[in-house]
Amino acid sequence: MSFEYLEFGKEEKDFIEKIEEISGQNVYSCYQCGKCSAGCAFSSSMDMTVNQLIHLIQLGQKRRVLEANTHWVCASCLTCTVRCPREIDVAALMEAVREYHLREEPEKIIISEIPKKAYDKLPNIALVSNFRKKTG
Amino acid sequence: MKIGVYVCECGSNIAATVDVEDIVERAKEFPNVEVSRVYKYMCADPGQEIIKKDIEEKGLDRIVIAACSPRMHEPTFRAVLEDKGLNPYVLEIVNIREQVSWVHENKEEGTEKAASLLKGAVLRIALMEPLERKKVGVTHKALVIGGGIAGIQASLDLADMGFKTTLVEKTSSIGGKMAQMDKTFPTLDCSQCILSPKMVDVGRHPNIELLSLSEVVEVDGYVGNFKVKIKKNPRYVLEEKCTLCDDCVPVCPVIVHDEYNQGFAPRKAIYIAYPQAIPASYVIDPDACLGIDPLICSKCKDVCGPEAIDFDMQPEIIEEEYGAIIIATGYETYPIENIGEYGYGTIPDVISGLDFERIISSGGPTGGKILRPSDATVPKTVVFIHCAGSRDPSKHLPYCSKVCCMYSTKHALQYKHVVHDGTAINFYIDIRTAGKDYEEFYQRAAEEDHVIYIRGKVSEVFQDGDKILIKSVDTLTGETVELHADLVVLATGMVPSEGTKEMASLLNVSVGINGFIREAHPKLKPVDTAIGGVFVAGTVTGPKDIPETVSNASGAASRAAGILSQDELEIEGTVAKVEESLCRGCGMCVEACPYSAIELKAVNKYGHTVQVAFVNEALCKGCGSCAAACLNGAINQLGYTDGQILELISALGEQ
Ligand SMILES: Cc1cc2nc3c(=O)[nH]c(=O)nc-3n(C[C@H](O)[C@H](O)[C@H](O)COP(=O)(O)OP(=O)(O)OC[C@H]3O[C@@H](n4cnc5c(N)ncnc54)[C@H](O)[C@@H]3O)c2cc1C
Ligand code: SF4
Ligand code: SF4
Ligand code: SF4
Ligand code: SF4
């Protein structure tokens, strides 16, 4: 297995700070108990569990966070938020990652250009986030 | 002879597995049994009253009680006998709870076993002679060995209770490891600030005699009456004359590593361990000084205004008697150079937890600036590797050292307080924060100071240019990870100090598999040892933090005071006794005795000088090892003589 190289430079710190700013959450509060993932109805559809995603945010691993499908599968049911022992609004963190994603590439989704058959596959939440962003 | 037999139901504890009525009936047929009864709780007052009434009315002179372990209620029932004028040793307790009902399920078999144990006891007690409890005097003075926070606390407590106390410290100052620390978890209060007032108190307490640079070299005697030899090494500076002016230091030509600063700073051959040291006096290191020979160098002596330096001081042997001894010789950190893959000793920027304490200390070699050893630059990424040596039964220490999760968190937090834009990463297996306010401290380090925690044990570190390459795993994501650090701090485990091992063997206290001293009972007697009058305080029994060390030390002091406050101590009557005419002086019993209670003495037998075994009753614990070892049957344990044991065995063999 190849080694993931961890860096703790400006890029990493900026990413963490941005996620914290959008979500209003302290990502360092998470002590990786995993209760959010344990209660999430969609964990099995995620390629990385919710707590793993949060851990990668703590490490500033932007690329890997954005590559995951976790935040897109999240339905914002808030089970994680209600159950987190560290009082982290986990759903807000998921939302923050989605927003970050869209802000990074704002033109990615142009509603009119989305092919009809892609609608089946596209998570609703992605469209919702996109609309919300565009309406400021 | 009239024997009374009493069977306890212990609620349903015993009655559920043993037919108590049946064994009571059977006991009535055993020889010499005058009365046999059952009661729900023999140990309760009404139970005791039944026995007392029978002794009075039926004139019983031997009592057998079938109940729980004698460890529980032997003292209770002995008091019942004494109350009615009987010798406390004509009592036999048969343990039909732990040895029968709790270990058997079949009631029939349980009942049979209980009945034969009971019969054995009845036969044995018939041969029992009343025994005498001897009394020994007590020297009202305590010896505390080791002047770390444990020894300091124990000495102060004893001295405050009014007992004269000698505190023996091997090095030139008391204080131990705590004196090397900068701040302490979980409050982050400065270690010296909370320690030095206690050190000063020791220095000036009228009841404490402080012997620094000293070691206990010989201990004889027994509880209440220890005869101790202490070797006091020369300081070469008269404590009472030295004014701490420091004039001697600049002129001294010899420079060596300063052990207080973990070798990161130099010191001279004449020095003071640190400014707050107690005794407050400079000291000459005889190994470094140019031979303690004024003809070669006497530069310090020449400049010393108060004429405090004396090159002619000699080691002294002090002989003193003590009633109780507390061992507080502390711990050392695991020699982490043994963990080759972590590079300690070969990679300069891999340091230990104690090294870090000195580097971050404002009184340390860098004046509190965090600079790494190799090039004195400020490290931007610091990696803390937990469990360095600990929790590794295959090659290093099998146990958890208990304080290192906390001190690594403390170090990471302290680092972030100084280097705000730095990164502090803890690689851990589990985070163990079992102490008051400890979990909160850890959560604060992450939440407020952004200390990063990655679960996984580092496999290897390499020097890579001017950085250190860390190879590890992140078990939370299941991936192997690599990163570069500027400084690596190893959370070094704790091992018993050399002094602890030496004192354990000198005082004959047993040590556990890891070399720490074994408590008399790990839960119920945590500061006692198996040797009467010898107590333990602090990290000598295993890893402890400061709060636990201090309460442990106060516990040891109060246990010691329990002895020191008496004028006489009673010794158990069940000691070993030598039949001089049978003893052939082979010394096998001397070898067998775990408490060194037997010695061979020359006596005159029929006009010849021969060796005969002699038991020191104050040291004898009545374990019976000697009686089993003696091939001549010359040594017997009173209360468990061969004849008595044979009766017991014969009853058991009947079935
Ligand atoms: C890096 C590090 C950081 C730590 N930080 C904290 C913290 O922040 N908070 C906390 O609660 N705990 C902390 N601890 C734990 C703390 O150090 C111990 O709990 C405490 O020092 C134990 O004290 P002690 O008296 O048992 O042992 P020691 O401090 O080892 O004292 C033993 C004394 O006995 C002397 N001695 C040894 N042999 C002999 C002999 N043969 N004759 C006479 N004297 C002898 C020694 O010279 C020494 O003075 C830390 C430990 C480490 C390693
Ligand atoms: S429940 Fe909260 S603390 Fe636990 S892993 Fe999820 S976010 Fe972290
Ligand atoms: S010069 Fe003398 S008095 Fe001054 S510190 Fe040195 S030994 Fe003590
Ligand atoms: S206290 Fe923590 S670092 Fe120390 S041995 Fe135990 S688990 Fe490892
Ligand atoms: S073992 Fe027996 S015979 Fe040998 S010295 Fe001891 S008491 Fe005497």
Number of helices of chain B: 17
Cα-based radius of gyration of chain B, to the nearest Å? 31 Å
Q: Provide the low-confidence segments of chain B as ranges.
A: none
Helix and strand pattern of chain A? EHHHHHHHHH
Shape of chain B: globular
List the helices and strands and how they pair.
The complex is a heterodimer of chains A (136) and B (655).
Chain A: E1 4-6, H1 10-23, H2 35-39, H3 50-58, H4 62-67, H5 70-73, H6 79-83, H7 90-104, H8 118-121, H9 124-134
Chain B: E1 3-8, H1 20-27, E2 33-39, H2 45-58, E3 62-67, H3 70-83, E4 91-95, H4 97-101, H5 107-126, E5 134-137, E6 141-145, H6 149-160, E7 164-168, E8 183-184, E9 189-190, H7 191-204, E10 208-211, E11 214-222, E12 225-232, H8 248-251, E13 255-257, E14 266-268, E15 270-271, E16 283-284, H9 299-303, E17 316-322, E18 324-327, E19 331-333, E20 350-352, H10 353-360, E21 381-388, H11 404-418, E22 423-428, H12 438-447, E23 452-455, E24 460-464, E25 467-474, E26 479-485, E27 487-492, E28 494-496, H13 498-506, E29 534-536, H14 546-564, E30 568-571, E31 576-578, H15 588-592, E32 598-605, E33 608-615, H16 625-629, E34 635-637, H17 642-653
Parallel strand pairs in B: 1-2, 1-3, 3-4, 6-7, 6-18, 7-10, 18-29, 20-27, 21-22, 21-27, 22-23
Antiparallel strand pairs in B: 5-30, 8-9, 11-12, 12-17, 13-14, 15-16, 19-28, 24-25, 25-26, 31-34, 32-33
Helix pairs in contact in B: 1-5, 2-3, 5-17, 6-7, 6-14, 10-11, 11-12
The site of one iron/sulfur cluster has 13 residues of chain B, from loops.
Structure description:
The complex is a heterodimer of chains A (136) and B (655). Chain A contains nine helices and one strand; from the N terminus they run βααααααααα. With 136 residues, chain A is mainly alpha-helical. Chain A folds into two domains: 10-105, Alpha-helical ferredoxin (Fumarate Reductase Iron-sulfur Protein, Chain B, domain 2), CATH 1.10.1060.10; 109-136, no CATH class. In chain B, the strands form twelve sheets. Chain B has a five-stranded parallel sheet, sandwiched between helices. In chain B, strands 20-27-21-22-23 form a five-stranded parallel sheet. In chain B, helix 2 (45-58) crosses helix 3, helix 6 (149-160) crosses helix 7 (191-204) and helix 10 packs parallel to helix 11 (404-418). The longest helix of chain B has 20 residues, at 107-126. The radius of gyration of chain B is 31 Å and the shape is globular. The interface between A and B is medium-sized, with 21 and 22 residues.
